[in-house]
């Protein structure tokens, strides 16, 4: 059976270290509504979007220039029957060289099509990774409100 976890990939003309450092500043590309430190192993932090989504993350793996993994320790969705759909999911950022570019593979392990939030979450992550994070890596400015454009 094919892997159904959500994944999206970008290629950029920046170093692996620049991509790694950008990932670890989610306030610049995901949301300014993040409380806590987000750049060291075992850091725990919270995210919220209005009263629709809240989650608590823990950084459980960090390999400089190569990989970052967040564990979703707690989650709340206002718009799903099971508000905790993401709890236990791992959000991975895998960084590698691809020819003369840097490849970033983003995967949310556990975000699968059977989740009620799947379509909304897939579309949101696609925008945040393909637009905001890519722009932050390449220009130094994320597009936090890409969905309003």
Could you give the count of β-strands? 7
H/E element order: EHHEEEEEEH
Biggest β-sheet: strands ordered side by side in the sheet: 1-7-6-5-4-3-2
Second CATH tier, the architecture: 2-Layer Sandwich
Quick description:
This protein is an alpha+beta fold and 149 residues long. The chain has three helices and seven strands. A hairpin with a 3-residue loop joins strand 3 and strand 4.
Give an overview of the whole structure:
- With 149 residues, this protein is an alpha+beta fold.
- 23% of the residues lie in helices and 37% in strands.
- The longest helix is centred in the C-terminal third of the chain and has 22 residues.
- It has one domain: 2-Layer Sandwich (Alpha-D-Glucose-1,6-Bisphosphate, Chain A, domain 4).
- A hairpin with a 3-residue loop joins strand 3 and strand 4.
- The chain has a seven-stranded antiparallel beta sheet with strand order 1-7-6-5-4-3-2.
- It starts with 5 loop residues before the first strand and ends in a 10-residue tail after the last helix.
- The chain has three helices and seven strands.
- The protein is globular.
